[in-house]
Amino acid sequence: MHVGLSLSFQNIDGRGDQEVWAAEVGLAERAAELGFDGVWATEHHFSDYEITPEPVQFLTYMAARHPTIKLGTMVVVLPWHDPVRVAEQVSVLDTLSGGRVILGLGRGISKLEFDGFRIPMEESRERFIEAAEIVLSALETGVIRFEGKHYQIPERRLRPAPLASFRARSYAAALSPESYAIMARLRLGMLIIAIRSWEVVGEEMAGYRETFAELNGEEPPAPLANAFVVCDADEGRARELAQQYMANYWNSVIEHYQFKGEQYASVKGYEHYAKMSVELRRDGPVEVIDDFIDVQVWGTPAQCLDKALAIRELVGCETFLPVFGYGGMPAEVAMRSMELFAREVMPPLQALAPVATRA
Fold it and tell me: Is the pTM of this model over 0.85?
């Protein structure tokens, strides 16, 4: 099983941005030393929520620093980019790293970010589909061309040419069930973010796998599972840390995505998030925060291992992407949690055989 460090680059506690970056890079450097299989970087802009606008640039740095780790984007938000440049940047990183890129793609849900890039949110799904077709085709064939509603691209060659196929290493983050059919048609695997009940997500994954097989005549790649983690020798302290910093993180989500408002109600393609906003206003902040903390991974090493194994059983993932620094957590606390996880939880996870080959 692949265990990759997921980084948040959050700055919700008033630190200098350079201090935040130093702490996150420190986690990444230490993770490589501890034997994590990969490093994964998000993309966000314009706010304290996550200050990581260039995941491919960061991963290029990590590729040179550590010549064996995998390099994951979670995710490149396609509507905010020229898809030709995305294909070029990914091809360059894959060439430099010797084929270590795992490509995660997404369409974005923050009005703050869409407004900053002057892209209408109601166009995001159409733009995502077209851009994904362009990028995935270019990385597969080495040729860029497209005629669509939002992008018209004359035929050009992708240089450097693709090093290897991305077909089994391309994923998409999708929180809304209606997006699963789109991702299946694009032949994208699923990147699952721990927001909702894993039991519910497991049921939805079964439908996604069925749709993928019907459309493509083959099984999809095993999904990737991302969760926030606190690992501590003391269960009570782990609970306290989870309740404090996971709650901080969730509150930053509410603020960044403006889920308390009604902005999604009138935006085409965001019906799932409009429903989520209604539920958040109805249920109240305490219950929602408790639900969020409940689906994360926290506790003693034995408890963290049991929770990670339960997630794997429910959704069939062969990749687990823990986040250790978030919600204003002090760097030394995040480092201690990660190091304990690496010593006692990660080895049995990495030793697991793929589900398909288990007796």
Answer: yes
